[in-house]
Amino acid sequence: MHPLHSQISSALQSRQQLSVNGEWLNEFLDSRGPNPPPLPALISTAQFRILTSDITTSLSPSSTGLFPRDVADVNVKARQLPGTVVVQILDVLDVGSSKWSQVEAIERVERGEEVRGREVIRTVDANGEEEGPDPTATAASHASATGPTATADGSVTNKKLTAGPHRLVIQDARGTKAMAFELEKIPKVGISISASVPSPAAHGDQAFRPSNQDDIGMYIGCKLVLKPGTVVRRGIVMLKPENCVVLGGKVEAWDTKWKEERKQTLNTLLVNEHDAGA
């Protein structure tokens, strides 16, 4: 075992309830070489690596800090998590907005359009040249729950994050999956409209490049800490600000795949809903 193993393991556990996998941590420390950086830097780097990793490999699947194996059992009316559970997000859906409005929001970003005040701004055309505002288009005609909302003075502002509530698919360090529902608004839980669209390289379109300022919200692979006492009702984990802490993070491969498939997924859900209502 690496000489710094216990110190880093203890620090990660006390700071963010991250029970690191011993083998994973040894490999991480060995990769730092014979002259590793100072301890604070090592702890910060290890924490970052965990937040960008699959926790089924980086965290310890111990008997504590995990979901009950039957957590998704809908026959259990209600239960509480006995301890702290760190989970990662595998999927997210804004159930407070219509699926069609979410598809429209994605397509606006794909076309290089954004809503600003009462105007729809065409930011970049197909040749990469900037264009001005379209004075004939109003924000109301392009509004959705993921886009602009009216303020007290009647003006329209652009919300970059989905409004929610959100339904999540989450997974613990053992690999046990569960559904979760945002019962009350949780800070940092939301999908960035621009960040939920594949990058230009993903679809060969150079017309849209979201700025870093646009890329807000959470990503697939984001880590959450669920506190003891969190209620699980009929197999659904009930999320509230007092029982859920967003650590952040992102698993790049998962997030890229989710973005590429998101519009098709929403369209499939729309078709299924239409068929069920027919």
UniProtKB/TrEMBL annotation:
Pfam families: RMI1_N_C, RMI1_N_N. Residues 124-159 are annotated as: Disordered. Residues 67-193, 215-262 form the RecQ mediated genome instability protein 1 OB-fold domain. Residues 135-152 have a biased composition (Low complexity). Gene3D superfamilies: RecQ-mediated genome instability protein Rmi1, C-terminal domain (2.40.50.770). InterPro entries: RMI1_N, RMI1_N_C_sf, RMI1_OB. Belongs to the RMI1 family. This is RecQ-mediated genome instability protein 1. It comes from Exophiala xenobiotica.
